[in-house]
Amino acid sequence: MASGQKISERGMAVGLRALNRVASSPALDRLGLRDQAAWALHGAGRNGTRAATAAGRRFAAVQRLSRPARQRTDAEPGRSDLFDLTATEEQQLLRNSVGELALARIRPAAAAADDATATPSELLTEVDELGLTMVGVPEELGGVVADRSATTAVLIAEAIAHGDMGIGVACLAPAAVCTAIALWGDADQQARYLPPFVSDDVPVAALALMEPQPLFDPLTPMTRAVKSPDGGYMLNGAKALVPRAANAELFVVGARLGDRGPALFVVESGADGLSVAPEPGMGVRAAATGRLELDDVRLPASALLNGLAGGSSSAGAAYRDCVALARLGWCALAIGTGQAVLDYVTEYVSERRAFGEPISNRQAVAFAVANIAIELEGMRLATYRAAARVDRGLEFHREVALARWLCAEHGMAIGSEGVQLLGGHGYVKEHPVERWYRDLRAAGMLEGGVLV
Amino acid sequence: MINLETPRKFETLVSQAHQVAVSVFRPNSRKYDTAEHEHPKELDMLAALLDGMTESGGMGGAGVGTVGGGADANGAGDGTGAGSGNRNGSNMASLLGLIELCWGDVGLMLSMPRQGLGQAAIAALATPDQLERFGGKWAAMAITEPEAGSDSAAIRTTAAIDPAHPDEYVLNGSKIFVTSGERAELVVVWATLDRAQGRAAIKSFVVERTNPGFKLERLEHKLGIRASDTANFVLQDCRVPKENLLGSSEIESRKGFAGAMQTFDNTRPMVAGMAIGVARACLEATREHLGTAGVEIDYDRPPASQTAAAAEFISMEAEWEAARLLTLQAAWMADNRKPNSLQASMAKAKAGRVGTEIALRCVALCGAAGFGEGELLEKWARDAKILDLFEGTQQIQLLIIARQLLDRTSAELK
């Protein structure tokens, strides 16, 4: 595939070397095996029965570090503090590579993936080849980027969602888990779980924060973790709209830990008491969302993320940061899809004629397009600001909340205007705007799933 | 490297402008809102003080007057990002200063001696000789006429060479809505050399306020920004030296008018900044009132899980943030010599409407304290509305944005 080749070459140019190994046959063999498991589960799901989670791999530490590895943040003294909207060269390369793949491969696959509530495995492999998970892994553990950069992750998510949000979520779901473990895992957790994410065979994984109840507040999850006498934990509850839930081999799950508040737990898919059922939604259907049920799931003490670093407050702080960084990921996705809407309607209203002239000659139409552009740019800048603050080690929760609100409200409005501007044509599947309408509703309300 | 924080180098400027807002503007806000048309004498002393600060390097460019050309004292490259060439210069400095001053009082900011949009036009179009003569003076801008508002190409004020005195133009017509028209030393007047030739024939002329042919007709009574005088003029055989025409006297295609319109690329972000300043004042006061009323705002919880007041506050803050960042973007682009006409209009459109909306919603959230004259919220809500009108209304901004995005001419998208 010509464009894929080009992208790999560019990927190498920015140092995402290890990735071309995927093409080697052992990897394909393993993928083939996983596909069979996936197919079986998909079939079970369609029959309406609850299925076990994916059989999963054995995660075992190969090399253990004496202390957890962390990527540097961008908080070095002496770095320019000027206002700047220029992405670094590395970011531009990554954005362009992903953007190219998004338009050449993801957009054409979007309608069928939406219909099938699944992203084709060849496409997932192709995106895995870009090594998006490697961006979030410290160099000591095989990652390729020394600096932790939420901004880079935002630019990648934006570019991928310009192709399609549902496929984007499917592609980015493993990176969310990998980034969470890189940020908050201790040395053992990192050694155990991170190496596969920089291998040829990236595990399917999902960050499960969302829950089924109305007015869900991720800070007070209903999923409960109880400390067991043996020092481990027992989890009970349900997680909603988890991307690629049926195929995931690894989850990071949010649960309330007694009086200590919410915390994150690493849960391997083979755990007893874990089950999954398909839960397709109005949008992001290509992400194959599922309901994850936890019924007396027993976990070892080592499953608690950030449990050792500084006691309860530390696990709580990690959880709060996780919620915020996941929201920022959804903001980035909303911007990418919002841009797709703007591009599409701009062309459409210029070509569509009514009353003897292009409809873009009418203020009612033209102003709607102008307003999409204004609000989209506001969403983008607010999202970039929050991400850049994360990278500089500044407080970012307020900025994420503001970006989240903008992307929820204006993202939804942009989805709606996208359909409106095409009139009846916007309502039928001949045009992608009806899908974007559905996807953009997800962006302002889902929790977890992606993480930057 | 993407970074949307404002740099440390402007901290002094911002804090000085804030001090002015706190100690001069706020204490006089109500006084000159009530005593419309009275000269705010406190500002004369302030102006002298600011001139001193400017000379000593502080307060560099905190105001509209310095925007848009000339030497760029703050524009030195970043120096640390090897070859990046990123600049945070006079446009951003002016913007940040204005936001602080308008947090204090928009009307009083507009009344600051030697500030004024006329200087932006002079800076953009003047020859070195004209800069020498007019630079640093208080210059107002006269574009609007009774029959030509947003449609500035339709102005009827004429300028013609007097055959008997070929070194003079004679101007005739009437101008309305001239901000600081009474107090300024100079007024930049738009007039046409030949109505038949449309936009291309429109030129700017610098008119001395003392010119006998330039008659103040009346001062407007307004909804807000009452501290700022808004003057209407009649030009009756108003003679100005030929050298007072800014830019070229040739009537050439549409270049001249486009040049005049380009002034707006620099001034629109400044007006957006004014809206951001006044809206921030509203948000801060409202947050205090809500705090007293026991409303807590939590940025981690979904707005829908909080009180309606908290959710509304977060939504206003978010809209304000979008407007603020759009405005910083437009100023940053101007500093880096990137064409920013689209972004300038986006900033103006967003900040104009958001400023008014926030101010009005804050009045409602604060109840009697918001509506009554005991506090300033009701005044800010009246002041804010002008910022969605002057320097191009909301609708004009949308037209400009849409024409650029959709590649429409003004004949196609009317």
Report on this structure.
The complex is a heterodimer of chains A (452) and B (414). Chain A is an alpha+beta fold and 452 residues long. Chain A contains 12 helices and 10 strands. In chain A, a hairpin with a 2-residue loop joins strand 9 (353-354) and strand 10 (357-358). In chain A, helix 3 (89-116) crosses helix 5 (150-163), helix 5 runs antiparallel to helix 6 (165-184) and helix 9 packs antiparallel against helix 10 (397-421). Mean pLDDT of chain A is 87; it is low at 1-48. In chain B, the strands form 2 sheets. A 4-stranded mixed sheet of chain B has the order 1-4-5-8, covered by helices on one side. A 4-stranded antiparallel sheet of chain B has the order 2-3-7-6, with no helix packed on it. Chain B folds into 3 domains: 8-123, Butyryl-Coa Dehydrogenase, subunit A, domain 1; 137-246, Butyryl-CoA Dehydrogenase, subunit A, domain 2 (Beta Barrel); 255-406, Butyryl-CoA Dehydrogenase, subunit A, domain 3 (Up-down Bundle). In chain B, strand 2 and strand 3 form a beta hairpin. Chain B has helices spanning 11-34, 42-55, 90-104, 106-110, 117-125, 128-134, 255-292, 308-335, 341-366, 368-371, 377-384, 394-406; strands at 139-142, 158-162, 165-179, 186-192, 202-208, 214-219, 230-241, 245-246. The longest helix of chain B is centred in the middle third of the chain and has 38 residues, at 255-292. With 414 residues, chain B is an alpha+beta fold. The interface between A and B is large, with 60 and 54 residues.
Helix/strand layout:
The complex is a heterodimer of chains A (452) and B (414).
Chain A: H1 2-13, H2 25-46, E1 51-52, H3 89-116, H4 121-129, H5 150-163, H6 165-184, H7 187-193, E2 205-208, E3 224-227, E4 233-242, E5 250-257, E6 262-268, E7 274-278, E8 290-299, H8 311-351, E9 353-354, E10 357-358, H9 363-391, H10 397-421, H11 424-427, H12 433-443
Parallel strand pairs in A: 2-5, 3-5
Antiparallel strand pairs in A: 1-7, 3-4, 4-8, 5-6, 7-8, 9-10
Helix pairs in contact in A: 1-3, 3-5, 5-6, 5-8, 6-8, 8-9, 8-10, 8-12, 9-10, 10-12
Chain B: H1 11-34, H2 42-55, H3 90-104, H4 106-110, H5 117-125, H6 128-134, E1 139-142, E2 158-162, E3 165-179, E4 186-192, E5 202-208, E6 214-219, E7 230-241, E8 245-246, H7 255-292, H8 308-335, H9 341-366, H10 368-371, H11 377-384, H12 394-406
Parallel strand pairs in B: 1-4
Antiparallel strand pairs in B: 2-3, 3-7, 4-5, 5-8, 6-7
